[in-house]
Amino acid sequence: MSARSIAILSGKGGVGKTTTTINLGVALTQLGKNVVVVDVNLVTPNVSLQLGLPPTPANLNSVLKGKASIRDAICTHESGIRVIPAGLSILESSEPLLVEYSDVLAPLSEFHDIILLDCGAGLWGNIAKAVRAADEVIVVTNPELPALIDALKSIQMVEKLRVPLRGVVLNRSNGSNYDASTEVIGGILNGYKILGNIPYDKSVLKSAAVRKPVVYYKPYSKAAQAYRKLAADIAGIEYRKSFLELIFGAF
Ligand SMILES: Nc1ncnc2c1ncn2[C@@H]1O[C@H](COP(=O)(O)OP(=O)(O)O)[C@@H](O)[C@H]1O
Ligand SMILES: [Mg+2]
């Protein structure tokens, strides 16, 4: 098996990359895909924190330094996604990295359908290295000017690296007049496809408080439905609302 690897990035921090990565991962798992999420945010990692995962004998930092095997860094979440966490200590992010991302991803590729790379905020450096190892990229942003401008910088970096950009996810949309208009968003983002529109939803915060993905903990919430729709698009499967979704989604 050879997995498809997708890097999830944003210029600005706090826009919802990790939330999008783990929920996309769970939704793709529910569609029958074997998914592994790799926390390539080596400086301020938070995938394992957001999922409440126990410590593993190794992590991505030790694997990239050639000190451990990727097998010792894999952890499985109760929702079914597998996770490669990054090291939580600041000391672990400082030493030089000796192993290429492509070499880290190769063994994972054999046993998974999809590899999701949760990148840190910002541009170049480690993020560019991870993007180069990916087959395609999704940029996450909020429908607000500062986030959109930083998203454009991420888009320009991806274009320079010549990695296919699948499109943009608009997260925490309010659907209000305070969000940038569709025309403004399209103009700033060079007309790249909007793959998903995830509403601002308190269910995301409620789920984060108990360290669970919203798709898993509050499956009938508006955000969970939007993440499932996004996952269907990524998997190339037609999205159909279930009976329960039709009932609960009305509230
Ligand atoms: N659609 C949403 N609705 C409400 N809160 C959200 C939504 N998406 C993300 N959040 C919250 O926003 C904060 C930042 O999200 P996070 O995924 O950690 O961002 P990033 O990884 O880009 O730094 C978290 O507290 C998260 O729970
Ligand atoms: Mg994050």
Automatic annotation (TrEMBL):
Pfam families: ParA. SUPFAM superfamilies: P-loop containing nucleoside triphosphate hydrolases. GO terms for biological process: negative regulation of cell division. GO terms for molecular function: ATP binding; ATP hydrolysis activity. One of its GO terms (cellular component) is cytoplasmic side of plasma membrane. InterPro entries: MinD_archaea, P-loop_NTPase, ParA/MinD_ATPase, YlxH/NBP35. Coiled coil: none annotated. Keywords: ATP-binding, Nucleotide-binding. This is P-loop NTPase.
